[in-house]
Design a protein that fits this description.
Elements (H helix, E strand, L loop, with lengths): L10 H10 L2 H24 L2 H19 L5 E2 L1 E5 L3 H10 L6 E2 L5 H9 L4 E9 L3 E8 L4 E5 L2 E5 L5 E5 L10 E3 L7 H10 L7 E7 L3 E6 L4 E3 L5 H15 L6 E5 L7 E4 L1 H8 L12
Parallel strand pairs: 2-5, 6-9, 9-10, 12-13
Antiparallel strand pairs: 1-3, 4-5, 6-7, 7-8, 10-11, 11-12, 13-14
Helix pairs in contact: 6-7
């Protein structure tokens, strides 16, 4: 007779059954083991340098074919809302050789390059349908001419440089600012010029003195000296006096309002000669 087989599982079978009942082990067999086999297979395949180089070349060629498809090519550039001079400068500074793939264009870099132009306040660069690189700019509007030691510049209403100017005759329609630091106080200067509107036809410019205060310079070398603080109010008082008494139409060389509570008038040399005789001279050179 054969010995009866023991129906109880062996110790190894018992442990395997218990292991299969563990959720973590079943999850490893279902997901972890296949992933491990895939990683191992990829590692074995990638261990060969020639295979790696060949795969990289094929990927690069595939990418090149996609990037150079006709629908991704940019063939021309259009500049909107720019004057001819600014458009020419934009085309000169943008390093784009057409046709070019849109994947090779960094629009942020192009926009920053356009905004570095003095006359450009802001810019937007985008790729439009039809393979067009669109550049839209907002130009700075010059409001004054600033004479510095190294030449003339056009400034906008915020004091930003717009462009260099060869001669004053190129923009006689804009008021002139003179003196170091004048461009840093452009808003105050424009307010003073607006307040002096009644004598705008006589205005020659504003002079910044010691980077502290302003002189309003009119024709006939007539000067209105304004205080360091609240120059606009002082200018308005001068215009009120001029309206009431034709102050600036008289033979006055300097209206000294540096101390608004004690304004001083200085007559022209001709007025002094007529009043006191030709032998009398009067020094009007103090411009502190």
């Amino acid at each position: 007779m054969r010995p009866m087989r023991d129906p109880a599982p062996s110790r190894m079978a018992y442990r395997l059954n218990r292991l299969m009942l563990t959720p973590g082990f079943r999850g490893f067999l279902r997901y972890g083991l296949p992933a491990l086999l895939v990683v191992a297979g990829v590692a074995i395949w990638a261990s060969d340098k020639e295979r790696r180089d060949g795969a990289a070349e094929r990927l690069a060629e595939l990418r090149r074919q996609i990037e150079t498809r006709p629908e991704f090519m940019v063939r021309m550039m259009v500049v909107d809302q720019a004057s001819p001079a600014i458009e020419a400068e934009i085309r000169a500074i943008l390093p784009v050789d057409f046709p070019v793939s849109s994947f090779d264009l960094d629009l942020d870099v192009l926009r920053e390059a356009v905004e570095e132009i003095d006359a450009v306040a802001s810019a937007a660069v985008q790729i439009r349908s039809g393979g067009v690189l669109g550049v839209e700019v907002v130009e700075r509007v010059p409001v004054v001419v600033w004479r510095e030691t190294d030449g003339l510049s056009l400034l906008d209403g915020e004091g930003h440089r717009v462009a260099a100017l060869a001669t004053r005759k190129e923009r006689p329609d804009l008021p002139l600012l003179v003196g170091a630091g004048a461009g840093d106080h452009i808003i105050e200067a424009l307010d003073i010029i607006d307040a002096a509107e009644p004598v705008a036809d006589r205005l020659r410019g504003l002079r910044r003195v010691g980077d502290r205060r302003w002189d309003l310079v009119l024709d006939r070398d007539q000067i209105v000296m304004l205080p360091e603080a609240d120059a606009l109010t002082a200018m308005e008082r001068v215009m009120a006096l001029n309206h009431a008494q034709d102050l600036l139409a008289r033979d006055i060389a300097v209206v000294d309002f540096r101390n608004p509570r004690r304004p001083v008038l200085r007559l022209t040399q001709g007025a002094l000669d007529a009043r006191f005789g030709a032998s009398l001279t009067f020094d009007t050179g103090d411009s502190r």
